[in-house]
Task: structure prediction
Amino acid sequence: MYFVYILYSKEIDRDYVGQTYDVGLRLERHALKTTRYTKQANDWELKYTEEYKTRSEAMKREKEIKKKKSRSYIEFLIQSSAD
Result:
């Protein structure tokens, strides 16, 4: 399985959208500041995930979310998963 995920940092008031096969491992890497974007903050929280059978599906969805460049869309996804 592959996942699309959204992280949020209150410290810099930013979202991060990514895809991975192991959400736990990916979060550890973000916490260790091994990625350029997420090393900007120390308080990243996992807010949302979607599951896909293939990496290509997950990559397509990640690109779709990023292409919208819409914070309101990301907030809609997070809120809809909480309901």
